[in-house]
Every structure is written in C-alpha cells, then in structure tokens.
Structure to design on (380 residues):
C-alpha cells in the first residue's frame, strides 16, 4: 500500500475492547473519498490475565486509587500499542501510512443518568497521548463524552457506523451486536426516516461471569454448558422484572447494573448452575426479541445481521432464532464484515469522521440534542 492521496483511500486503525474484557481488536480500514469504509485486515491481542483481573476489579470496585487507575490504564495502552504494531508488521505498513487510530478505550463505568443525583458521566480508561507516542500514529479518542455533554446517553455509538455500512442496502435492515451487552439498530428503507438504536440488555457479560464462577476460563465455548441445562421460567420471570427492560429508548446500560451480584440476588438457591446458564442465554434472547417489538418495522421478514462475540455462541443463536422466527438471521461476513470486527471498524470510521469534521453520533439513538463531532485528536 502507498500513502493515501486525496483521490485514494485513507487508512485507519480502529481499536476496541468491549465489556467482555477479552482482548484488543484492531481493524485496518480503508475509507474512500466518498467515505465508504472497507475492512482490509485485522489483528487480535488477548487481554493478559493480570490486566483482565485488574480491569474487572475496577469495574466493580466501590472505590479505586489514582495509582490503581494509572497502572491499569498504562498496561491497557501498551496492549493497544502491541495490537497496532502487530497489525502494521503483518501488513508491512509504516505508521506514516496510517491517517489515524480510533481508540475506544476500556469502559470502567457508564452512568448517563448520573449517580445518586450527581452529573452524568462515562469513564473509559485510555491514554491517547501515550498511544500516539508508542505507535507514531495520530490518535483520536474520548468519543463518548461529547455526546454526553449534549445531553445524550453516549451510547450506543455503533448504529451510526451500521448506517454507513449497511444503510444503502435495499429494504430495511436490522443489526444486532452481541458483545458484553446487546444493542439493536434499525435502518429504515426510507432515507428521510431516522435510525433507531438502543441497548437491549446483557449478552455475554452475565454468561461469562456465571461460567467463570464455576469453571476455569472466561467463557462458555459455543454455549455448550448452557445447552446442557434447562431454562428456568421462574428465574427468567424474576430477571425480566428489572426496570431497564421496560424503559423506552434511548437507553444504554453496562456492568453498573448487570453483574454477578445482580444475578445472584435473583436466585432462589435451588437452581442448578447449568440451568442458570441456560436461563441467562434465554434472558438475552427474550430481551432482544422484546427490543425488536419496539422498532417501527414495516417488513415482518426483515434481515437481521448478527455481529459480536455472541454470534459464535450456537446455543444463544438457536434461542434467538426461536424468538425471532419472523426475521432472517444473517452473518455480516457475507457483506465483507465478519462478525468480530464491526465494532473495531466503527472506531476507525469515527476517527475518520472526527478528522473530517463530521458528526459521529445519531441523536435519534443517543438522545443528544443534535449531531456532534466526537473525539479529541492527539498527534504523534
């Protein structure tokens, strides 16, 4: 590849570490002069066990010292840099050939409604200055707080990218991301109609936590353990009473609400572990299906593109198909974007939006008072 010129694509790297805390995804994306994104290459770096434990602790700690935050942020940034360097080496690229890196950072706490009467906030551990220093690339980061400042939820941000990727396809489109949490995007067929998107609830976050409580490892591979259990209707009903599931959009959530202690307070004590796991998968499937009923669908048989790590959970996909039989579940890989790389691609695209002075949020999704250019720029 050559350094981009105005008439040729520009190259961006998107970095994403979601609420599952499993690693850093790095996506190399070419964005054409007409702003069309194309996925070129990817690299994934697993989260070291010690860093995974530190981040998980910070997500649930009632308090943390500045030293703890700085230690975790520094270690996280260096894993990000390793992901970028790996991708550049594999693709035989130099930092100068990359227009910018888009870094999401690691969400530690997300409170768009504030906490105990305090101001709204969202906290992502990130050190874009250090990342620029380590990689030699321009970094764009801190995407969420500009939307929050405009009265938005600061999440989800991916629907704007879903619109850029899939919005020109014929017919209305649905996109479901199954990361630590699940979010839905509805892309209308009529361009004058507004996009709808929101978090539906937990996806992998509770499944992973419950699995890790009983087995070594971080996740239930292919949903095999969940498939060995039975859905507990009484437990499912108790879980679904959570007010979040009944809030109208815009809405977003995180580990602040859905975590292991939240689950355990709903247990009667008579459930088998595998039945709880099966019920958690059902909770995701049912809450997604409830979310679909909140969308202004005009085509009952619309296509649903399923992305994120949960797309590889065969049992979860089986339960989704059972509750969404009217929809056609598709892999976005058929459109050039494999399931695992859409979120990382989104932050490459958001970096492009920032450098071109273009909005990165959708007010109809986040509830912000208007479109906003998101992120700050850090030169190498």
């Amino acid at each position: 590849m050559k350094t981009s010129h105005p008439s040729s694509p520009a190259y961006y790297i998107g970095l994403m570490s979601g609420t599952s805390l499993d690693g850093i995804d790095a996506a190399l994306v070419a964005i054409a002069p007409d702003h069309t994104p194309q996925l070129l290459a990817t690299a994934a770096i697993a989260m070291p066990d010690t860093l995974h434990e530190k981040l998980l602790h910070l997500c649930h700690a009632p308090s943390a010292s500045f030293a703890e935050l700085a230690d975790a942020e520094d270690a996280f940034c260096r894993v990000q840099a390793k992901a970028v360097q790996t991708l550049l080496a594999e693709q035989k690229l130099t930092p100068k050939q990359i227009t910018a890196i888009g870094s999401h950072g690691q969400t530690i706490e997300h409170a768009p409604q504030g906490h105990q009467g305090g101001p709204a906030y969202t906290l992502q551990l990130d050190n874009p200055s250090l990342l620029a220093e380590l990689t030699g690339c321009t970094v764009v980061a801190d995407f969420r707080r500009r939307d929050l400042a405009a009265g938005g939820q600061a999440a989800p941000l991916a629907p704007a990218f879903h619109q850029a990727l899939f919005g020109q396809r014929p017919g209305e489109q649905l996109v479901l991301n199954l990361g630590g949490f699940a979010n839905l995007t509805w892309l209308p067929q009529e361009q004058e109609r507004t996009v709808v998107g929101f978090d539906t609830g937990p996806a992998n976050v509770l499944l992973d936590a419950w699995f890790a409580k009983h087995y070594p490892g971080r996740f239930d591979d292919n949903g095999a353990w969940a498939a060995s259990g039975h859905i507990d209707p009484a437990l499912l009903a108790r879980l679904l009473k959570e007010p979040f599931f009944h809030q109208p959009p815009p809405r977003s959530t995180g580990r602040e609400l859905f975590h292991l202690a939240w689950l355990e307070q709903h247990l009667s004590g008579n459930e088998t572990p595998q039945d709880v796991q099966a019920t958690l998968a059902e909770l995701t499937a049912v809450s997604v299906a409830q979310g679909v009923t909140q969308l202004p669908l005009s085509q009952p048989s619309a296509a649903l593109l399923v992305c994120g790590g949960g797309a590889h959970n065969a049992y979860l996909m089986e339960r989704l198909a059972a509750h969404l039989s009217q929809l056609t579940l598709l892999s976005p890989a058929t459109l050039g974007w494999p399931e695992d790389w859409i979120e990382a691609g989104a932050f490459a695209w958001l970096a492009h939006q920032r450098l071109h002075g273009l909005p990165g949020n959708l007010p109809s999704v986040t509830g912000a008072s208007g479109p906003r250019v998101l992120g700050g720029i850090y030169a190498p």
